[in-house]
Amino acid sequence: MSNKPKTKNDKAWEKLFDKYNIIENVTNNGFFEIASEQINEYREARLMTKFDHKSNLPQLFENNKLSILPISRGNYIIAQFEAYHKFEKSNHLIERVRFPDYIQSIDYENITSEATAINTAYVSGIFADFTGDEELLPTVSGRMSSNAFNFQIKNTINGQLIPISVVNSQIEIDGGYEGLDSLTIIEAKNSISEDFLIRQLYYPYRLWNNKLNKPVKPIFLTYSNGIFSLYEYAFEELENYNSLSLIKQKNYSIEPDEITLDDVLQVFRGVKRVSEPDGIPFPQADSFKRVISLCEILYENDTLSRDDITYRYDFDSRQTNYYTDAGRYLGLIDKKRENGSVKYYLTDKGKALFSVNIKTRNLKFVEWILEHKPFYLTFQRYLDLLEMPLKENIVEIMKNSNLYNIGADSTYFRRASTISGWINWIMDLSR
Question: What is the chain's mean pLDDT, rounded?
Answer without folding.
Answer: 94
